[in-house]
Every structure is written in C-alpha cells, then in structure tokens.
Amino acid sequence: MKICFVISDLNKEYAGTTVVMIKKAFERGHETFVMEVGGFNFVHGSAVDIRSKKVPKSLKYNTANDFLSQLKSDTVKWKTFSSDELDVLFVRNNPTEEPMNRHWAEHSGLAFARAIQQQGVLVLNDANAMAHSFIDKMYFEELPIDIKPKSVITRDKQVILDFWKASKKNIVLKPLEGSGGQSIYLMGKDKPNFEQIVNSLLDKGYVIAQEFLPGVSKGDVRVLLMNGKILEKDGELGLIRRVNSDKDEFRSNLALGGRAEKAELTPEIERIVALTGPKLIRDGFFFVGLDVVDDKLIEINCMSPGGLAYTEEIGLPDFTDTVIESIERKIEYKKLNKNELSNTELATME
C-alpha cells in the first residue's frame, strides 16, 4: 500500500500521534510518504501532484524521535509525484492551529484532499466530512443535547453576560475556532477581567460560552474512536485520562503539560459513544477524539486527534498497529468491491 500523511510543517512536527502512525506504516512494509499542506500542485484535467518525502527503506532509528529526526534531515529529499499513485491520503494537519501568517493553510489541505478523493484515492478522514466539520465546535452542536454541557455561541457581549448569570456565574469561554487549550478562560463569580477577556476573544471571531463542569478539576478522558467505536487492542481500550498540570489549572491538554493516565470505561462514556458513533460512521470519520468529563462530552476532535504517542507510557498497548491494520483492510475491501464503495463507506468500514 502507498500511504501519504499530510502534516502542517515538517520542521515543526514533533514525535506525536501522526509520527508514530507514519513510523508504524513504514514498519509494516508500506511505501510511506509525508507531505506538508503547502505541497499540493493542481493543473486542471490532471491528477494533483504532491511534493513529499518518501521514508527510505534504509532509514536507521531507535525511537520515534530518531525516526522523525532522520525524516527531517536533508538526506531524505523532497520529490514530486502524482497523487493517483497513492492508495491512501491520511490528512493529519490541524487547520485550527495554523498561525495568522499561514491563513492560506487552513482550508487548502481539505480542498486538495477533496480533489484527490474525487480521483478515487481513499482519503481519511473523508474529505467532505472534514470540510463539513471544519469548525469542530459547530459540528459538536449537531450531537444530542443531553450529552453536552449547556452552551451559547455568539458575538454579542450581553448574550455572554446573560449566559454567565444563568449558569450560576461559572462558565468557560473559548473561541469558536481553535484547539489545543489555547485562549480558554474560566469565568467565575468574581468575573475578573471580563471586558478584557471577552473583547480579546471577540477580536478572534465567534465565542462559545459553556457551562463549567466541576468534574474537570480531576481532568478529562480522551476517548479515541476508530470506525465509530472505541479503539481496542488485546482487550484494552483507547481511553486516556488527562490530568491537570496543577490544582489551579482547569485545562488538562497534554500539550499544556497535562499528565496522561490510563482511564476506565464507564457507563457514561459508553452512552456518549453509543450516541456519537453512528453519526461519525454516517459522516465518514475514521479516527476521532472525544473529550469527556463525567457524563458530558465537552469537545470533539475530527481533524487530528492525538494520544497514541502516550499509550505505552501509561500501560496501554501500542494502538498504531490496530489503526494501520484497519486502513489495510479498507484497501482490500476497495479492491474486492472493484472501487464501487464510496469514500465515506470505506472510511468507516471495520
């Protein structure tokens, strides 16, 4: 199988979920490529060309960091080839993490992925689904109301203030577009710096105000879903508790210093997955991250969920085998069905 992973910027990439998946695909004997979101070339009437690095068979490494370092080096050359030679394009760049000077990168990856999908290459997650959920907090609002905290999305400061009062003066404020725990604020009873915080968020666009869940003080659980079900290997589940870095920090993102721990499956998580999974399957989402606090789903990551790089450290299996094996089966299904299955169907077939 020929598989290409789309990332934002190779020089800024770290040995996280995407890198361990690239490494595993290579180790399973596949022709494995990595490209940046700025590496597409389009000419009308032709297949999209992609500028990428192919992981060389001679690559020597001991760890994921070694693997990435070798891939970044000038000894592995950038080359351009036609995307119609690919079996799979795995889109892993996160548009919401792009800086302002790379505004062009936010939508371009999905646009080119859609064109490549139309050529017949399997795109994961489904490109149309990712385009639909580009603002993942709006996609989140399509999910059943009883598994989510109360919230309001607005650009009206008075609406935010009214929601704060109605929510016992305890809410979380964050930009509608964004991720990684950045620009998220807890607004308590004292309402400190309200004007400054709200104005700074409104400068970025729409604001989502969400009721504060006290259980977040114990961290949240990242639920890794594949094909609409909890990722599983050897009887272990892809459930990672992310614990806050200190008692005064309500955000538990690993990128902000949060600590990863093994988590247990609860009836509440089972219910959230049962109510969320069918929609994800219908829409064509292969690999998704859910963030859960107690019985509430607080966020959904459809673009580039992380967590796989931490699993072995906390006593869980290396799930990357399971993910790549699933992709291998999809390519086999595609061949057996003579390319008659849609990308959406293939994306979530087990």
Automatic annotation (TrEMBL):
<dbReference type="InterPro" id="IPR013815">
    <property type="entry name" value="ATP_grasp_subdomain_1"/>
</dbReference>
<dbReference type="Pfam" id="PF02951">
    <property type="entry name" value="GSH-S_N"/>
</dbReference>
<dbReference type="InterPro" id="IPR011761">
    <property type="entry name" value="ATP-grasp"/>
</dbReference>
<dbReference type="GO" id="GO:0046872">
    <property type="term" value="F:metal ion binding"/>
</dbReference>
<dbReference type="InterPro" id="IPR016185">
    <property type="entry name" value="PreATP-grasp_dom_sf"/>
</dbReference>
<dbReference type="InterPro" id="IPR004218">
    <property type="entry name" value="GSHS_ATP-bd"/>
</dbReference>
<dbReference type="GO" id="GO:0004363">
    <property type="term" value="F:glutathione synthase activity"/>
</dbReference>
<protein>
    <recommendedName>
        <fullName>ATP-grasp domain-containing protein</fullName>
    </recommendedName>
</protein>
<feature type="domain" description="ATP-grasp">
    <location>
        <begin position="137"/>
        <end position="328"/>
    </location>
</feature>
<dbReference type="Pfam" id="PF02955">
    <property type="entry name" value="GSH-S_ATP"/>
</dbReference>
<dbReference type="InterPro" id="IPR004215">
    <property type="entry name" value="GSHS_N"/>
</dbReference>
<dbReference type="GO" id="GO:0005737">
    <property type="term" value="C:cytoplasm"/>
</dbReference>
<dbReference type="GO" id="GO:0005524">
    <property type="term" value="F:ATP binding"/>
</dbReference>
